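Study the following:
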Amino acid sequence: MESGFTTFDEYLEGLPECERKEIEAGSAQMIKDGLPRHDGFAHYVMYTDEQGETKTICLYIGITRKENVADAIVNIRGALGLFTSYPPETEWGHPPDEETQSRCIEAWRQVNADKAYQFGILEFTSI
């Protein structure tokens, strides 16, 4: 996108009508097809280790896609390179389990109380 636009709608308004209609038609088709698909999510923590390097560790992966779970897992696997480490597939929640999520986060927090850290959630989607 060109700089100076603050919203996607403003960007679309600046396009020629034929391009705008093409984007709108593509968006409508994606919605009709049920895309993007929400495959799952990851709870992660970012912290700085003793050597001053930033580490991003995935604490929990939940699979939210109800149909074709195998495809969701393939898509999630493709994004795991973002993390320094992550749980094995046998521990991924399907369906997601809120109690396990909380337990994973709290366990990490207790063991690493001396570190400066930030928790986050990353959503996995596929088109």
